[in-house]
Design a protein that fits this description.
The chain is an all-alpha fold. The chain contains 15 helices and no strands.
């Protein structure tokens, strides 16, 4: 069958049948590296992959989830396995794993409270507007989220700025920051809205005067 390097090369090449993959699995169950590659192969049977998933290290679970060649159901099981272990990870581990995590995995941690973890998620290359909207609309307290959001550029996007403007938990500092990214109609609505902080109103007036808008 060859040494481990040759087996891995054959698995990666794609020129291998399901039967050959199963034969490798039967003979090399003691090789973590080979199992990790087998589980990501699109022709490797799910019934065997699911047994392997439970024994993978967290970062390898992330790799399985990110690999679009992996069977969808196997990727989903890897997400569930990772999320089940998540609370036991140290802060450093969470930062490391979520820095590399794809969007599908980030979605599991919308209720995260730790600002540094949220910041890592927002700066993740796979982060998208849909994730930001979920943070804004989450049921739990959002102070730490807004602290993290303040460290990046997401709030400058008009659609996100508008979503923030409708959140009663949005801090005054953030409300002031999004003013330049809202249209005049939205600024008027915020200004007239009951409960809008006087500081926010003042900044809206100052901004519109500088822009010479018909406020």
């Amino acid at each position: 069958m060859g040494n481990e390097f040759e087996i891995l090369s054959k698995i990666r090449s794609g020129a291998i049948s399901e039967q050959e993959l199963v034969e490798i699995y039967d003979r090399k169950r003691d090789s973590y590296n080979i199992l990790c590659h087998l589980v990501q192969h699109p022709r490797f049977p799910e019934r065997f992959s699911l047994n392997i998933i439970a024994d993978l290290f967290p970062m390898d679970l992330v790799r399985v989830i990110k690999n679009t060649r992996t069977r969808p159901y196997v990727r989903k099981r890897a997400e569930l396995e990772f999320s089940a272990r998540y609370r036991k990870f140290s802060l450093g581990e969470k930062l490391s794993y979520l820095k590399a995590a794809p969007l599908s995995l980030l979605n599991y941690f919308i209720e995260e409270k730790e600002q540094r973890v949220i910041s890592t998620m927002l700066h993740n290359q796979y982060c998208r507007e849909e994730l930001i909207f979920k943070f804004i609309n989450r049921k739990s307290e959002r102070y730490e989220f807004y602290q993290a959001l303040d460290t990046g550029e997401w709030y400058k996007r008009p659609q996100i700025a508008e979503a923030i403007s409708m959140d009663e938990q949005a801090p005054v500092k953030m409300m002031i920051k999004i003013i330049p990214y809202l249209n005049l109609k939205k600024l008027k609505a915020i200004y007239k809205r009951a409960g809008t902080h006087q500081s926010v109103k003042k900044h809206i007036l100052d901004y519109t005067r500088k822009k010479k808008s018909n406020f």
